[in-house]
Amino acid sequence: xxxxxxxxxxxTSAAVALTVFAVGAAxxxxxxxxxxxxxxxxxxxxxxxxxxxxxxxxxVYNGAKQAQHDTGAQVxxxxxxxxxxxMVQQLREAVASAPDGIAMMGHPGPASIEPLAEDAAKSGIxxxxxxxxxxxxxxxxxxxxIGANLEPQGRALGAEAVRMSGIxxxxxxxxxADWAQENRVIRELGTVAALEEAxxxxxxxxxxxxxxxxxxxxxxxxxxGLLANPDVKLIAYPxxxxxxxAPTYMESVDKKPGDIFNIGFDTSxxxxxxxxxxxxxxxxxxxxxxxxxLPILSLCQQKVYxxxxxxxxxxxxxxxxxNYGTVADLAKEGLR
Length: 336
Known about the structure:
- By secondary structure, this protein is of the alpha/beta class.
- The chain has helices spanning 2-33, 55-71, 84-96, 110-122, 135-141, 150-165, 186-197, 209-213, 219-228, 240-244, 246-252, 269-276, 288-305, 325-332; strands at 43-47, 74-78, 101-105, 126-130, 144-147, 172-177, 201-206, 232-236, 261-265, 282-285, 312-313, 317-320.
- Strand 1 (43-47), helix 2 and strand 2 (74-78) form a beta-alpha-beta unit.
């Protein structure tokens, strides 16, 4: 019995030793597989969306720059001033330049993007999309999407605003958007739907792509809307640039902080300041840093490691007057 037990113990010890050796060998192999600048031979054309220096675009750009640094990828940055026609022309030029991958804003919509996505697929160019999805294009020619799920995000913002503000049947609200961009206003239409379901009368004000780049251009539009509807209780803005400019809009019609419930999307140093001073009450944070970082990471992983395209919903939740301090410092750094 003692001899059998000893023999069993020796066999067990040997098996454990072999297991430890195998784990050690695997760990060593894994360590050797780790590489710096692992994506250095991959050339990517990245669409920032806005103009250089705008609030939202800067956070997207900072995320993309961080991904470039972390992966070593060669990245060319494209600025479009949120103008869809310009994006289409720039995408045409990007496909013609034959990079390994393109990270494209979906604002122009599927009809404009699809033929160029087909050309990219035929040329072996990988595609990713950020901020605005084009699911029918992706279904035909591949690619992932990094951004908020727009209609649910907009609807959730409207529902949360109803809950927080107490706005309801018989009240008026203004929703601001570039209503001509059908693929882009899916989100704002979700907000309209949530407000109308609560019995709120919604007044739509129309902006232009230029107003996204310079929100002061919207002062006449918003002030006219407020003067024509002095009993408006809530305004929803289409992006961080305009939401951050809410104090200017309010002051143009002699409103004080809290007189109107101002809501919208994104965070920025201007929005944080507006929260601090009581001008803004609610925003839906879609984490634009991830919309810059993850498309480049995904293109690198697809090209170098053969992995599938990422699909990530970046619509994380709400920032309001109670919790804005948790993102304030990062927003001021251009990261949130």
